[in-house]
Amino acid sequence: MNRITVIEAGPLVLVEDLGRPGLAHVGVAGSGALDRGALALANRLVGNPDGAAGFEILMGGFRARFDDEAWLAVTGAWGPVTVDGRSIAPYTATRAAAGAALEVGPAARGARYLLAVRGGIDEPATLGSRSRDTLSAIGPEPVTAGRVLAIGPPPAASVPLLDREAAFPPPAEVVTLALLPGPRADWFTDAARATLFDDAWRLSGQADRVGARLEGQALERRVPGELASEATVPGSIQVAGDGRPTMLLADRPVTGGYPVIAIISPASLDAVAQLRPGQVVRFRHA
Amino acid sequence: MSRRLLPSGDAAVLVECDSLDEVLALHDALAAEPPPGVVELVPAARTILVAVDPDRLPLESAATWIRRVPAEAGARRAGRVASEVVIDVVYDGVDLHETAGTLGVSPEALIAHHKAVEWRVAFIGFAPGFGYLVSDDWPFEVPRLDAPRPRVPAGAVALAGAFAGVYPRQSPGGWRLIGRTDAELWNPAAPSPALLLPGRRVRFREVGSP
């Protein structure tokens, strides 16, 4: 059995797969990699099923060593990634020799690297998934320096022989996200709904896997009073009593008591995972 | 019975009812015979989120099904978990005095009410094991905090709207805190991970400061 030993973990390293859907009615969110497309692609590059567990590495600062030969791919954020000191290309399957050291440096673009290892990270599953849900504290503990994690047996599929995938770094400047109507859009004034689409928003420092707050004008309500708590879907933009919007993400509470003005289109949701605090966000109609 | 269908992305519909009783009745009707492609039903206070796999059940078809399902108001599913859970509480929450003041009662009267009534878990939400408790004998409506606290400790006993609840884990939260308990509300490794399940009866019992 191959293993990976984590030497340095950086700000936050989590084991994530594609989550545990269908458990919201008992209070468990879907969780899973915040940039789902990046995890699925990293897995495909090394011949894994899309939903194999990998590492979600926030901003870099990660170093690890493999016991035996391993195939790996890094997607999502862009930054310096090396195997035994040699740069490796993003979005490409790379073979690491037995004992080789992998280093994922500070992200230059985006916020979350996804690291897939052929065979997947073989942590115990909870409620059907190896994903860490940071709000519910379900799933594998956050990965810290010194941890030794098992790598699963190689899948039946071989490492695909691909030409270099067309890959683009996450944008450094303005990111535009497509919005679908929210269930409570009519709780807001016309002016507030226009503001949502017309203004430039800024990702606040209060941004994690649970939700990401946006800085900008307060959004004014037309309907006053309390909303009875109701179920939300990933990408729901809820507006708290202070008028500030928050994008609810994979580890969100499954119900919320603030009205949802709009919902980020699933096609745009992966991009939220790569936003950095201070980055400008604009919205358009899906 | 009214059913308002609200948009909730490209793979779900949010169905709004006029009362919690209607939600319970509609949920039972929907759960009785869902068409293929229904992924999940998530009941809440006035709503049910119907999540679908749009490749197997287009949203338009799901909407038609939801509108046509017959439901007799008040026809609740029989045989719900009937056992009563007793939760020991120290009533020293940071919001106790202000909440009582807002409601125009003394803290002692608020505590007495909270202990006296029989609560029922209406649905699970917000976080794993977080039961929304209702009681026909609970007269208060408690406003949420304007902005949620980033951290509420595990075991915090809280009020919001017409509901009582207990935070199973440390989490953000906008409910008003009136006390705390040592009871374990959620343990995903246990055979039955949640102490509170929909339909379960709950009583709160006051204990002294440990």
Please describe the structure with a list of short key phrases separated by commas or semicolons.
heterodimer; A: 286 residues; mainly beta; Cyclophilin; 7-stranded mixed β-barrel; 6-stranded antiparallel β-sheet; B: 210 residues; alpha+beta; Gyrase A, domain 2; 2 domains; 4-stranded antiparallel β-sheet; 13 strands; elongated
Describe the structure.
The complex is a heterodimer of chains A (286) and B (210). With 286 residues, chain A is mainly beta. Chain A has helices at 36-45, 190-198, 266-273, and strands at 3-8, 12-16, 54-58, 62-66, 70-78, 81-83, 86-87, 94-96, 101-104, 109-117, 148-150, 175-181, 201-207, 211-215, 230-231, 236-239, 245-248, 255-256, 260-264, 280-285. Chain A folds into 2 domains: 3-150, no CATH class; 175-285, Cyclophilin-like (Cyclophilin, Beta Barrel), CATH 2.40.100.10. A 7-stranded mixed β-barrel of chain A has the order 12-19-16-17-14-13-20. The termini of chain A are far apart. The mean pLDDT of chain A is 95. In chain B, 20% of the residues lie in helices and 30% in strands. In chain B, the strands form 4 sheets. A 4-stranded antiparallel beta sheet of chain B has the order 1-2-4-3, with helices on one face. A 4-stranded mixed beta sheet of chain B has the order 5-13-6-7, with helices on one face. In chain B, strands 10-9-12 form a 3-stranded antiparallel beta sheet. In chain B, a hairpin with a 2-residue loop joins strand 9 (156-160) and strand 10 (163-166). The longest helix of chain B is centred in the N-terminal third of the chain and has 13 residues, at 20-32. Chain B is elongated and about 55 Å long. The model of chain B is unreliable at 73-82 (pLDDT under 50). Chains A and B meet through strand 15 and strand 18 of A and strand 3 and strand 4 of B.
